[in-house]
Amino acid sequence: MDDMSEYKEIYAVESAEHLQSMNKALLSLEKDPNDSETINVMFRGAHTLKGMSATMGYTNIKELTHNMENLMDRVRNNELKLESSYIDLLFECLDTLEKMVENPEKSSEFDISIIIAKITEPKAEKTAEVIIKKDPAPLIENTSSIENTSSIENTSDPKPYGSNVFQVSVTLHESCMLKSSRSTVVMRNLSELGEILDTIPPVKDLEDENFDHEFTVIISTKEDAKKLEEAAKKVIEISNVEVKTHIGKRAQIKSQEKTSVNDSNKTSIKSVQSVRVSIERLDSLMNLVGELIINKIRLMQLAKTYKLDALEETLTSLNRLTNDLQDEIIASRMVPIEQIFNRFPRMVRDLAKKEEKDIDIILEGGEIELDRTVLDEIGDPLVHILRNCVDHGIESPHVRKQNGKNIKGMIKLTARREKNNVVIEVSDDGKGMDPQKIRESAVKKGLMSLEEVNKISDIEAINLSFLPGFSTAEKVTDVSGRGVGMDVVRTKIGQMGGSIKLDSIAGKGTTIKLKLPLTVAIIQSLMIKVGTEIYAIPITNVIRDLLIKKEEIKTIKGEEVILMRGEVIPLVRMHKLFDIKCDDHEDLLVVVVERSGNNVGLVVDQVIGQQDVIIKNLDNNMLKGMKGFAGATIMGDGNVALIIDVGTLL
Amino acid sequence: MAGKILLVDDAAFMRLMLKKIIVPTGNEVLEAVDGSDGVAKYKEHRPNLVLLDIIMPSMDGIECLKQIIAHDRNARVIMCSSIGQKTVVNDAIKIGARDFIIKPFDAERVLEAVSKNM
After folding, report:
1. Which domain range does residue B91 map to?
2. Shared domain check, A420 and A512
3. What's the gap in Å between the CA of B107 and the closest CA on chain A?
4. Closest-CA residue of chain A to B104
């Protein structure tokens, strides 16, 4: 079935969406098993998925969803109470479905007999009923394509118009333009006489002019055939109208089924105009705009150098256009953050259950939008952070009780927009981090000496958990604590040009704050010069820049520091770091950057200014994996500048 | 059956073209130069049929159509559209336009529309 292949992608996307909404529904059913709307959501989800899978020929998925649908139907009809054992079973079903949907071609290899047996078995006396109820009436909303075959029988009931069902075939003139509008006029005229049950091709195709010169309207009416013919012929540019009594419902419509496989919203005539675009295409669009911007900058520099006023004027409008274009493309890549947030309640529930803890998770700001690529990247780090919360953060119920806390632990996940960044905060009301314990652990693991450890502040101590190979978990559990922890998280966030901040109060809880750029492909950067080289520092990391006199530099324990608003800031001389010769200046330019909660001053030669830079990944073998740089960018003059990743640079 | 036909179009050239096509049918032809004029002339003369342009200054065809229909629910209005105005045409049909013809006008089509709707 070659013509099915193009639907596979849509199938994958849509079924994942359905699974997610079912997961969400199930979670709330666990809290309130009687909420009829949520029960319906589950039912509809299973039903739609069944229809989609049957159309695609994925029998196993169809079977399982069919059984889930039956189960939910019994719940819906109050024949079955949704006890927690059923909830667990349904979760199990969803998990199995998720695996099958991931690779639907291989779904037939899954053994689903056991799980199906579990669904049907517990209330054996009901099985008879289940079989009878094999084909529940399709729902009106979101009727999936496979069900459309039966939609006529189900809708052929509306009786204000009497029982004559006609089939009106209309042929338009060869020269007819705006065929869709023409068909709309015909349908409008016909609908004044009765109720339109269906059209061939489907309404959507009619609207999109996806038909030749002929279309058929199936209508239920109390008028006679002649009236219908007259009504249709009243419209101009019609060469022929043929009215027949409608027979053989299934066969005729079935032939149209293939064209309407992905049309899941047939019932709504006006649908939102949208297309699905693969992320690769958006990526390449973004790349092209990136190149365009580079060239634009180059042109602007040329105009400036050669003082070409006329060119500069034109470039101003070009500048506006490329900016708009860039904004549009960025906007089209944005997806609400709830796409990943939504899977966390389920995850936290499962983990908590395993650990025998009682945890509530609160989500806020799910509507905040983030670049698709950023979203993909932060999924894993967030999973890791949340696992830490469940495993190390929240105490077991009896400990919480002893400490006078609410038995139920709480994890709060919030997202909000701050200027050009999105801030994601994960906080828990667990036991927090004990700086002293971390110090001891660092010494024990040989990461620092006892002497060093005692010098650092509590905040610095807490931030030690970002060091590679650090994990305070006394025993390694399945949930977390494999020691690959937080340093991976930090590296990943850093690579995206974001920053991470950790705050913890022993006994009260921990808060992790991720600051992320809206998009990864283009970031705002501060361009600086060290020696002859230009570097870009992501603006998210930059606190401020300042000019200091040489004598303002103080030394603490052999390290150079400066004071900024009473805060001691260690200085890093970039020349030294990059091994570049430098002249001794009286005045020093310092860019203060934030690095995991601490401020560090970078001594540079020159601050050039703020600029949008397009990240090119360093996937070249020589540079790949090099610490300290998040990538490179091409500047307007064609030169390459490295983008500094503050997190790993120092 | 002879009757009154109102042409609403801001372009005199277009009105002239339509007039040349319609006059031989024996119908009386009235003219309006924009949307608001169209509404006024409709109320004054109660034509049997209106040929209504969509894009016009001061009041566009859609607004004009709305006002005519509001005034007379049974008004027979045919929209004059160019290709590429699908959504507007569809809107017009929903509001109550009987049909539409497409520019550049084909005499035969115009006559068909007139005869079917008079």
Report:
1. 7-117
2. yes
3. 12
4. A177
Tell me what pLDDT residue A4 has: 58
B94 touches chain A (CB under 8 A): yes
Distance from CA of A57 to the nearest CA of B (A): 37
B109 touches chain A (CB under 8 A): yes
pLDDT at A471: 57
Q: Give A510's contacts (C-beta < 8 A, 6+ positions apart).
A: A389, A393, A427, A428, A430, A432, A433, A502, A503, A504
Q: Which residues of A touch B117 (CB under 8 A)?
A: 234
pLDDT digits (tens, 9 = 90+) for B30-49: 999 989 999 999 999 999 99
Return the pLDDT at A480. 45
Q: How far apart are CA A42 and CA A73, in angstroms?
A: 9
* Residues of chain A with C-beta less than 8 angstroms from the C-beta of B113: 236
Is A195 contained in some domain? Answer: yes
Residue B2 included in any domain: no
Parts of chain A with a pLDDT under 50: 1-2, 124-161, 249-271, 473-483
Residue A456 sits in the same domain as residue A325: no
| Cβ atoms < 10 Å from Cβ of A67 | 21
Query: Do residues A65 and A162 both lie within one domain?
Result: no
Asked if A177 reaches chain B (Cβ–Cβ under 8 Å), the answer is: yes
Q: Which of chain A's residues have a Cβ under 8 Å away from the Cβ of B77? A: none
Q: What is the pLDDT of residue A335?
A: 84
| A425 in Cβ contact with A513 (< 8 Å) | yes
Domains in chain B: how many in total? 1
- Note down the domain range covering A312: 280-332
Residues A127 and A247 in one domain: no
pLDDT above 90: residue B65: yes
**B76 and chain A: CB distance < 8 Å anywhere?**
no
Q: Which residue has the tokens 């058929």?
A: A216
Residue located via tokens 């040489």: A550
- Residue A295, Cβ neighbours under 10 Å: how many? 15
CA A127 – CA A133 distance, rounded (Å): 10
Q: Is B64 helix (H, G, I), strand (E, B) or coil?
A: helix
- When computed from its CA atoms, the radius of gyration of chain A, rounded to whole angstroms, is 32
Same domain, A513 and A527: no
* Number of structural domains in chain A: 5
CB A517 within 8 A of CB A498: yes
Q: Are B18 and B110 in contact (CB under 8 A)?
A: yes
Catalytic residues of A: 47, 69, 388
Residues near A460 by beta carbon (within 8 Å), at least 6 away in sequence:
A598
Structure-token match 């039966």, residue found: A150
Q: What pTM does this model have?
A: 0.47
Residue B1 lies in a domain: no
Q: What is the pLDDT of residues A334-345, one digit of tens each?
A: 888 888 888 888
Q: Do B116 and A235 touch (CB under 8 A)?
A: yes
- Pull the structure tokens for residue B21: 């096509």
